[in-house]
Design brief:
The structure holds 3 protein chains of 3 kinds.
Chain A (H helix, E strand, L loop, with lengths): L7 H20 L20 E7 L6 H20 L8 E7 L4 H15 L3 E4 L3 H14 L3 E3 L5 H10 L5 E3 L4 H12 L6 E7 L2 H17 L4 E8 L7 H10 L3 E3 L4 H13 L2 H4 L2 E4 L5 H7 L8 E3 L10 H14 L5 H20 L4 H8 L3 E4 L2 E5 L6 E2 L3 E6 L8 E7 L2 H4 L16
Parallel strand pairs in A: 1-2, 1-3, 3-4, 4-5, 6-7, 6-8, 8-9, 9-10
Antiparallel strand pairs in A: 10-14, 11-12, 12-13, 14-15
Helix pairs in contact in A: 2-13, 3-4, 6-7, 9-11, 13-14
Chain B lengths: L1 H23 L2 H26 L8 H17 L4 H23 L4 H21 L1 H4 L5 E2 L6 E2 L5 E2 L4 H24 L1 H11 L1 H6 L4 H27 L1 E2 L6 H14 L6 H19 L3 H15 L3 H14 L5
Antiparallel strand pairs in B: 1-4, 2-3
Helix pairs in contact in B: 1-7, 2-7, 2-10, 2-11, 2-12, 3-4, 3-5, 3-10, 4-10, 7-8, 7-10, 8-10, 11-12, 11-14
Chain C lengths: L1 H31 L6 H17 L5 H22 L9 H23 L15 E4 L2 E4 H23 L1 H11 L1 H6 L4 H27 L7 H15 L4 H21 L4 H15 L10
Antiparallel strand pairs in C: 1-2
Helix pairs in contact in C: 1-5, 1-8, 1-9, 1-10, 2-3, 2-4, 2-8, 2-9, 3-8, 5-6, 9-10, 9-11, 10-11
The chains are: A alpha/beta, B mainly alpha, C mainly alpha.
Chain lengths: ~425, ~325, ~290
Amino acid sequence: MGKRGMNRRDFLKLTGAGSLVAAAGTVGGGLAFPKGLWAATPQIKGPIKIGYQAVLSGTLAGYGEFHKMGAVMAIEEINAKGGIAGQKVEMEFRDSTLKADEAIKNARYFVDSWGADYLAGIDSSGQALALAPVMAQLDRPLMVTHAATEKLTEDFVFKKGVKQIFRICMPTYNDGHAAAFIAKDFPAVKWSTVSPKYEYGFTCWKMFQDTLKGLKPSVQFVAESWAPFGTTDFRSHINTIMDAKPDGLYSTEWAGELISFVKQAKEAGLFEKVKYVMFPVGAAMDVLEGLGKDMPDNIWVSARYFFQYPNSKENNDWVARFHKRWNHYPAYVSETGYSAIYAYKAAVEKAGSKDTKAVVAALEGMEMNSPAGHRVFRKEDHQAIYDVPWGKTKSDPKYPFKVMGDMKVIPAKVYFNRPPFEGPGTTPPFK
Amino acid sequence: MKAETRNAAAAAAVLLALCAVPFLAGKFTVYLTMRIMLLGIFAVGYNLLLGQTGLLSFGHGAFYAAGAYGLGFFGLHVSGHPLFGVAAGVAAAVLLAVLVGYLCVRHTEIYFAMLTLACGMMVFSLIWNAREITGGDDGLIGIMRSPVSFFGLFKIPIGTDRQFYFFVLVFFAFSVWAAHRIRQSPFGLALAGIRENARRSEFAGVPVRRYRLAVFVLSGAFAGLSGSLEALLESNARPFMAHWTHSAEPVLVSLLGGLSSLAGPLVGGAIFVAMREIIQRFTENWMLGFGIVLLVIIMGFRGGVMGTLSALFRKATAPGEG
Amino acid sequence: MQSYVHVILAGLSGGMFIWLVASGLTLIFGVLGVLNFAHGSFYMLGAYCSFTVFRYLGAGFWTGLLLGPLAVCAAGFVVERFFLRHVYRIALPYQLLLTFAFVLIFDNLVKIVWGGGALSPPSLSFLGGSVPILGRNFPVYNLFIIAVGPAVALLLWALLEKTWYGRIIRASSSDREMAAGLGVRVPALFTGVFVFGTWLGALGGGLAVPYVGLLTPGMGETIIIEAFIVAVIGGLGSLKGAFVGALVIGVLSAFGTRFFPAFDMFLTFILMGGVLLWRPQGLFGAAR
C-alpha cells in the first residue's frame, strides 16, 4: 500500500512472510498469527469488502443505527492497526427495510456489483430464511447478527448444507428454552403470554411451553394473546391476560412495542396482579433507556448481549470505549455487529485467504473472545455458542435506566438445541 | 400507419437489447432487469384495468401472491415442472380474481379502491395466519427451478440466472404482446369507452359490469403470472406479496410512466427500479430522494413520462406531417 | 362484567383516536375532494413537534400540544399552496401519488431530524395515573381522550353548521364555481381548510404521545389506513359518518381482539367490506 519503493530487506521480509502464509495455508489453518507479520500477502488482495445490511427506515429504524455503531467502530479499530491480513477493510451499509426481496437485492448488489467478500447483518427471520438459498448461489459467507430463527441454522445449514451461513448472535434458544430454565424455580404455575403475532413469537412461546412443562410438569398455560406487528395499543391484549388471572407472564415483545406494552400494562396495574414477568429481550438498551424509571422492578429480563455481562476487563473496557465513541451504551446488535467484523478478521487471518471455502472452514469450530465473552462457532450448524445473563430489573444510581440485578447465567450448552435437531434428545431439557 | 411501424421497430429494438443484456452486462444488472420485467408484466396487465378502463384497484397484490403460492404449492406437492407450475399459479390467481372481482366491480372509484384494498388485505391476513399451510410470515421456502422439459424430449435448464433470464424474457414478451392485442381489440376499445363514460357505453349496449369483471380477471392473470415467476426467481413466496403496499407498486409505476400508452407502465417500472438503485448508491435516505423525484415527475410531467414524451414528440414532428 | 366494561372502554378510547385523525382527513376530502394520503405524516409530525416543545424546550405537555400542531400547519400550507393546488383537476390516482411522495419525504425528514430510534416520552403528571373501574385500573388519560373525541366533533359541527365561515365552506364544497362567482376567494379558502385539517391531524398526533407512549418514524402509516377505513365506512366527506364509524370500528376491534383473536387483522377489513357491499356509499355518505 505504501508509495515508497521497496528495498531488499523489505522484499525479503515480504517473501518470508509470504511463504510462511503459504505454508500455513496448505497446512490448513488452526494457527493464529500475530498481527505484526502482515504486510501485503500475495494470496490476499485488498481491500477486504464487507456488505452490511440492517433496517434503517420505518418503526425499527433505530436498530440499523445500532448495527452501524458496532460495525463502524470495529472497522475503524481494525484499519488503524493495519487492517485484516494487512489489507484495509471497506464496508458498505444498506437499508434492508425488513422486506425479504430488498434483502435479496442488496445481497446481490453487494456481491455481484460491489464485489463484497463477506456479508453481515439481517434483522428479520423471514429475510434470513429467504436469503439462505441466495447465499448458497452467490457463494459468500453471511454472518447473521440479529435474526433469531433457529430454522436458519437447523434447516439451512445443518440439514440442507448451506455452508455460507453463520450466526454470531443468540438465537431463539435463549428466548424460549433458557427462559423456561429460569422460570422453573418460580412458584408461578399459571403462565400467560402477550407475544408478537409472527413466527418468532409463536416459536418462542412454544419452546418455552415445551421446555417448562418438561422441567416442571405442574405448570398450566392459561392465556395467550397475539399482537400483530406494529401494534401500538395493547390494552385489549392486557385485558385478555388480566381476565385469566395468571401468576406468570412471558412476552417476546421487543423494541418500541415492548416499551408501549410495559407503559400500558403499568397503567392497567398488570404488574401488581402478575408477580412473575419475563421479557427475554427486555434488557435491550433501547427498551431500558426508553422506559427509564417507568420500567418496573423485579421483571426478569435478558438480551442477546447485556453490557454488564461478563464483568471482565475486556468487556468493561469495550463498553467504555464504545460509550466514548458514540455516547451510548451498546445495544446488543452493536456488540454482534462489532464481533462479526472481528470474526471475519480472525477467520481470514487463520485461513490465510479471502476465499469463501477457506473462510468457512476457518470459522467452523473457531473460538473467539469478544465483548460478550467467549464464543465458539458450532461446526454442525454454524451457530455461535456463548452465554448471556438473565436478571431482575433494579435501579442503580449510576445509570438513568434500570439494570440487571440477581444475575443468573445458564450455560448455553444446557439449553441449545442439539444436532441432529430432529427426534428425541435434541431439545432441552436433556436428561 | 407510420406510427404502427415505428412502434413495432421500437419494440423490436427493445427486445434485441433485452436479449443482449445477459451477454453484455454484469450479473447484478441481469438480476435487476429480470425484476424490471417481472414488475413490467404486473404493471402492463394492471394498466389494462387502470389506464384503459379507469378502475383503481389496491388489491392486486393478492393475485400476485396467489400466483406465487399457487406455483409454490404445486411445486412442493405435485410436480416441479416450471411451466405447469406457472400455469397453476396463473389459474389460482384467475380463480381468486373472479371471486374478488365479482364482489367488487359493481362499485366505482374510491369505493372500488377501498373494497379491493380490503379484499387484498384479507388475503394477506389469511396467508399470514394459516401458518400450518403457508408457513406464515416465513413464507414458502425451498421452491426449486427444475428444467423445462417437453414430454421427455429435451430438457432446458433454467437454474442459472442467465438461463432463467430468457425464461422470464419469453413470458415478458408474450405479456406485452398480449396486452397490446387486448388494447387494440374491440374489447379493449369498449373498455376505453367505459372509462370515458360508463353510462353512455351502457346505453350503447356494452355489458359494462361484465366487461369490468373480465378486465379485472385478465389483469389478475397477469399479476398471477408475475407472482409465479418471482416465486421461481427468489425461491420463495411471502405474505407481503398480498399487502396493499405491494399492490400500490403497479399503480405507482403506471402513473409514473403514463396511463394511456402500452409502454407507460414498462417505462415507469424501469425508472422505479433503476431510480431506487441509483439513489441508494448515493445516500441511505433513499425515501427522501425517491419522494423528491416523484414530486418532480408529477408536477412536471402531467400524463406521466410517456405522456410528456409523446406530446413533445408530436410537437416536434407536427409541422412535417401532412 | 368487568371484562366487558374494560373492553368497551379500550374500544372507545382507541376509536376516539382514529376519529381525531379521520376528522381532518374527512374534512379535507369533503371540502376539497382530495384524499390526502400524507395525513398520517401530519399526525406523525404533530407528535414529534409537540414532543420536542414538551421535552427539549422544557415547556409543559399542554404548551407542546398547543404549539406543536401549529408548527405542522406550516408544512400543510406548503403542501397545499405549492403542490396540491395544481393537481385538483387531475384524476384521483395522481393526487394519491403526490401525497404519497410527501409521505416518503416527511417520513425520511423525521428520521433525519430526530433520528431513527424510538422516542419515549416520560409519563404525565397531570392527567397521568389510573383510576379503578370495576376493580381494574384504567388510565385517566384515556378517559380524557374519550371526552376529547366528542368535544372535537361538537366543535366541528358548530363550526360548519352555526358559523358564517362554516356556511361559506359548505357552499364552496358543493359548488366551487358558484361560490367563486359570489365573490368567495375559493383558493384561499381551500388552503385554509387544508391547513385546518392538517391541524386536526397534528393535534391527534400530539394527543397520541402519552397514549401510545412511543414515537417512531413511520408511526403515521398504520393509523392512516385505519383512518381511511373509518372515513370510507362512515361515508367519505361525512364528519358524522367518520365519528360513528370510528366508534364502531374501535369498539368492535377491541371485542375482536379480546374474544375472537384469530381474526384481528381481518376484522376491520371484513367490516369495511361488509359495509361497502351493503351500502356502497358508506353509512352516511351521499348516495351516488
